[in-house]
Amino acid sequence: MNIENLPQLTQFQVDEQPHIVVDKEVCRSCDHRACVQTCPANCYTWDEENKLLSIVYETCLECGTCYVTCDKGALDWSYPRGGYGVCYRLT
Amino acid sequence: MAKYFDAIIVGAGPAGSMAAIKLARAGLNVCLLERGKYPGAKNMFGGLLHNTPVLNEMLPSFWERAPLERHVYKKVLAFMTDDSAVCLTFENENFEKPPYNGYTVFRPVFDSWLAAEAVKEGALLLCDCTAEGLIVKDGRVIGVIVKGREGELRGNIVIAADGVLSFMAEKAGLRRDFRTRDMGVGIKLLLGLPEAVINERFHLVRDEGADISFLGATDGIRGGSFLYTNRESISVGMVLHLDSLKATGKTPYDVLDGLLQHPQVRKLVKGAVPLEYSAHLIPEGGIRAMPKLYTDGMMVVGDAAGLCYTNGLNLEGINLAMTSGVLAAETAIHALDAGDYSARMLSLYKKKLDDSFVIKDMKTFKNAVGMMHMERLSQAYPRVLAGILENIYRVEGKPRSKLLHLARREALKEIGLKGLVSDGIKIGRALL
């Protein structure tokens, strides 16, 4: 299954302000970066060359997996503002 | 808009909407907050709305009006190895008449319908409202701070029906931080298939539906998979324990892809068109991982209260949620009558819940949590079963063994005596 295509199946109302903010300094020294691996929507990317964790919050399914698997306190995680974020039609 | 309510319910999911119906019917001034554009916009589950007595009581013959997909007639438990499936199929004519034993539903559709029933009864539904915090005065919860339509809502009682991550319970100091071992992530792909193809492929007629639970096929990660038939689509997905997922280093969508590529599953999903992809956490820690259920001015219901359990055979949550919503509403009605919103008064909710099937079942299967954490459950045991059956059925002109000998050989090969004994104790404590 190509993860690249999955977010296109789901509808999002994208807010200009992110609902998850990562503390990139903390992530730099993280020994597992479970967020990158466990996120079902592949929102996190680790850039090994620049030692930089980045997030695409726009396709976040708001499931909370990263919120639970991150044990470094690197995530400032909240639900998007009302009406924004993922918007399931059927599922 | 009146900004003072008898009760404020955070979350228009099944628990919240049932609470709202109950309270509004009692003539109370109820506000139902929903962070999605519509109720259900943020909600996802495997696919099965279980028969729930409080739902039947409060909305009689709801199955004639509610937007349901199919009633579940056929139950299949499938033990999966990499190349085989051992299936136990149960078809029962008693599941063919109302009130049906369960229905497949689309949550955005069903949750919207249920919330609309609450609105019909007089509840005020406010969508696009994310509850950001609680207003607490003298140690008592007296309202909710809303992000989105910035503002404050005040009320005598707050019912936190804000789902598995319940930030309301956290802000009220009712829950601990989550542990990966107490959580599962559910991921699901909705696949479109013509109605006639589904009926033919799963041997169904009319509104009959199938519920297939797969044990195994999760690529070595603890958890299970599922397939539910909707009218013109099938829901295929899995639940993966977060601690196990994290430990294996695999990605959820690759594991789901593995299920879809499994030789026996591939035939079931052949020709299907992907329609929607979704993910949600599931409280899997059982009764020991539940938060405290009430405090001064507030009660916690549904997933927010960790009301969910599985014992490998039953997977229940939505029915527990709806029941808890109604019991919290009954408590709120009592509290409002008495003008007493103290924790002591609201402890009645816990008592009602303890006396109901909700907590009784969670207690009955409290040891199932440990069983579901057995690494061998979703890997070695399906291999033992498949190994036994392959030996039974394979014809190759060699002398056969009797069943007990065969079973012992397969079990010792996969698990070993020590493992069998310790697993036997765990399974026995969980289910027997």
A few lines on this structure:
Chain A is an alpha+beta fold. Chain A has helices at residues 6-9, 24-28, 34-38, 65-69, and strands spanning 12-13, 20-22, 44-47, 52-55, 75-77, 85-86.
Structural write-up:
The complex is a heterodimer of chains A (91) and B (432). Chain A has 4 helices and 6 strands, in the order αββααββαββ. By secondary structure, chain A is α+β, with helices and mostly antiparallel strands. Chain A has a single domain, classed as Alpha-Beta Plaits, CATH 3.30.70. In chain A, a hairpin with a 4-residue loop joins β3 and β4. Chain A starts with 5 loop residues before the first helix and ends in a 5-residue tail after the last strand. The model of chain A has no long low-confidence stretch (mean pLDDT 95). In chain B, the strands form 3 sheets. In chain B, strands 3, 4, 5, 6, 11, 12, 13, 14 and 15 form a 9-stranded mixed beta sheet that branches. In chain B, strands 1, 2, 7, 8, 9, 10, 16 and 17 form an 8-stranded mixed beta sheet that branches. Chain B is built from 15 helices and 19 strands. Chain B is an alpha+beta fold and 432 residues long. Chain B has 3 domains: 212 residues, 3-Layer(bba) Sandwich (FAD/NAD(P)-binding domain); 103 residues, 2-Layer Sandwich (D-Amino Acid Oxidase, Chain A, domain 2); 53 residues, no CATH class. Classes of the chains: A alpha+beta (91), B alpha+beta (432). Chains A and B meet through α1, α3, α4 and β6 of A and α3, β11, α6, α7 and β15 of B.
